[in-house]
Amino acid sequence: MRRSSRNRTIPALVCYSPASELELGVARISRFTILVVDDRLEFAENIAEILVTAGFEAQVADTCQSAEDLVAAGGVVALITDYRLQGETGVDLIRRLRSNGYDLPAVVVSAHTDPRTIDEVRRAGARDFFAKPVDIDRLLVQMAELTRARGAVALDEIKG
Amino acid sequence: MNSAVSHPTFLESLKQYVGFDDDGSAHLRAFYVHAAPHIARIVDDFYDAIEAHPEARAAITGGTAQIERLKKTLIAWLDSLLLGPHDEAYFERRARIGRVHVRISLPQAFMFTAMNRIRVQLLDIAERDLIGDPPRLSASTSALNQILDIELAIMLETYREDLTIKNNTAERLATLGQFASGIGHELRNPLGIMESSLFLLRQHLQRLGVDDAKIGKHLDKIGVELKRSNKTISDMLDLARNRPPRRQRVPAKSIVAQAVAASNLPPEIAVEVDAPAGVTVDADPDQIAQLLTNLLLNGTQAMGGRGRLHVGAIRTASETMLRVRDEGPGVPAEVRHRIFEALFTTKAKGTGLGLALCRRIAEAHGGSVVLEPTDGGASFLVTIPDAAMGAVAGASLPP
Questions:
Q1: Distance between CA B340 and CA B368 in Å, rounded?
Q2: A33-53 pLDDT tens trace
Q3: Do B193 and A43 touch (CB under 8 A)?
Q4: pTM score, two decimals?
Q5: Distance between CA B38 and CA B379 in Å, rounded?
Q6: d(CA B65, CA B71)
Q7: Which of A36, A52, A120, B216 is within CB 3.0–4.6 Å of A44 for a Cys-Cys bond?
């Protein structure tokens, strides 16, 4: 039972997230989006909605391929990916993106918390590992840090 | 109960194999009058040899009192060795004694050499007393050798039986581990969705300005139960993974309190705790609490959810002993040696996991958990040696 791959932004949710609501001190740069990848789209959508509520922008994907397409389309500055993705893994995705020239800060979320998986995730250069169910506060803090760094770099680029 | 030892034809096949028959039994009975005056001496010599040997001595933890008891047992053992009758009941008694040796972790090598000491002395007596009657000497020595070979075979069979149980347990736990791990991970995904939906629901209500105590109460309940489900799954995965203990020295009293709290016992269950303030245990507190929790729940179920549980903690020089006793009907004799096997259960709703996990946790600490003989109820004794001691003992015993 393979789900067809879908790419979606969640524009409706972006709308009700005025800068005044931001509690995390994140510099909101609307062009910078966090991509959430999970073959359970319900989960990806929830995390995306939480991110949006916290002032980020978010997109979701449920396969490696659709995630790669979204990254190639531009605007994605950070990645939250599930470890298991329909025969592939979040680590595969991180490596493939990197070999295609997209060195995005990434965190991995997984129901599998055995030391081997965690070790593999760390060695792939992921910034953090989250067990499911996710500690949402910690995830938001981590994403704030990752995007702040990325945002600063981007702003420098814009300023030239 | 398909174990080889309890199989009725095992003794017959052994007898046939070594050529022991009713004549042999008769010769042993006739030889008894010659051996009887020497039996006390043989027994003393037997235990002197054990006491002189540190590794064999280690299997006897009960000091002089235990040795005195064991000597009486050995006298009775020698009496019935010669007097018989060498029937199935005899055979079952012998197998039980063998299981005691296995239980106290007496290394097989000592069991062998100990049996040989007895053999040499009995044959000496035969040669001295029957030297003038060569046919009888020959028949008696032959019967002695045959019956002692049978004894040895029974002992070895009990060791093999124990090994089979350990293997079965390991195999079953491995299968179960895979199963638990598959289910556990699959359940974490929906939990992740529920938890994040709950988070969003709270945010949306806040945004809408809804501050309703009834709604809040139910959201809190969902949150608490999600956490509890997640904890159960994590515990199950931890155990399936067989995490090595993270040892620290903690008061036994606090681990017992942790276990009692985690057991969530019905109000009709009274728990009497006797854990003096100075008694500590060098162990992984969470794992030992989990072990005690299992024993408390077992006791509660054995008593039909109503009665008194006794939990005790005592220290020796190098180990901590924890005892959980109930006042239920006790464990039937015929299942006593199987209760620690994984997936073995006598309860309609049992998983056969609890005691297997108890055993695994105790053994991971270099210790043991055993069912103690009692007059009533079931009493489990958990022995946890201090870390350094456990490592040494673990290294010197056969796997």
A1: 11
A2: 999 999 999 999 999 999 998
A3: yes
A4: 0.52
A5: 38
A6: 10
A7: A36
